[in-house]
Amino acid sequence: MNSVQQLNDSIKREASAFLEIAKETNRVVVGQDRMINRLLIGLLCGGHILIEGVPGLAKTLAVRTLASTVQAKFQRVQFTPDLLPSDLIGTQIYNPRTGEFSPRLGPIFANIVLADEINRAPAKVQSALLEAMEERQVTVGDQTHTLPSPFMVLATQNPIEQEGTYLLPEAQLDRFMLKVIVGYPTRAEERIIIERMTTDEEPVGHPVVDLASIQQARSVVNGIYVDEKIREYILNIIFMTRDPLSNGAKDLSPLIEYGASPRATIALHKAAKAFAFLRGRGYVTPDDVKQVTPDVLRHRILVTFEAQAEDITSEQVIERILSLVPVP
Does residue 298 sit in the same domain as residue 240? Predict the structure, then answer.
């Protein structure tokens, strides 16, 4: 019992720095607590996050503020249809004095990279970003360069305006650990936004943690206890997405074209541990898994044409799966 208490006390101390990040971010961004929580989960797990929402919901502001609270290198790239891979990863520059080419590294070489409106970039740029996200390295010319650590991509996209956009392929969507949907603020929150954002000096975030603290926190998160029953619960959720008929969900079988990959299993396991960490606990509960499941799976479950015809989304499928899988 003492060892469990000591573990929880240690985790609460480590988590306090990340709660300070949330507090500092909330000084600038009103509401959007769920989005900020998911950004912290991505930071703790070293995972990339796709943020989707209509314009004006503080997606870019939240990412920029989060980066300002961390003593790390931050780069923002505005994705446009005429963007080239070299604009992102860098290129070879010819030196006439020496007659040789030398690499000039692009903005991807940062700890936190904001890919603003990622679906406006053409396929070549998306492919270049894919290697960076998965392999944590990029190739410029004939040389491969390792990206700094920690490294995470926070991408935004607008679900409404589709003219001049390029849908992200499933292979790249799967590289995002979480997909976060951002909604409108409440009336009370919007009143605060009016008061806060219409003054002479808008609030800005200040650094509260350094890279060493992030690396230390990641080690602590990796050590959080996950019971065997929780692991089975995670596997039951994932396998329900792949073969609902064999898992007692006959009504879901015609709705799911493709289920979640093993990468989703790993992401769900990591995200649940990070969620428990932010709650100051040294162990994962079934509710931790439930809380992060929609963000982990909504972009990994492909629904059938039949489901689309009936306006059934992947989120509705996930909700049904969570209601069917027995909770340990």
Answer: yes
The angle subtended at Cα 74 by Cα 119 and Cα 30, nearest 5°, is 75
Residues 17 and 125 grouped into a single domain: yes
Q: What is d(CA 326, CA 328) in angstroms, rounded to the nearest whole number?
A: 6
Q: Is 320 exposed, middle or buried (0-12, 13-18, 19+ CB in 10 A)?
A: middle
Domain contains 84: yes
Q: Which residue matches tokens 């009336």?
A: 187
In a domain, 296, yes or no: yes
pLDDT digits (tens, 9 = 90+) for 22-46: 888 888 888 888 888 899 999 999 8
Which range is most confident: 125-134, 189-198, 227-236? 227-236
Domain that holds residue 126: 2-197+208-217
Q: Provide the domain count of the chain.
A: 2
Residue with tokens 């969507």: 173
Q: Using a pLDDT cut of 90, give the percent of the chain over it.
A: 21
**Are the C-beta atoms of residues 215 and 151 closer than 8 Å to each other?**
no
Q: What is the pTM of this model?
A: 0.88
Which tokens in the block code for residue 156?
């935004």
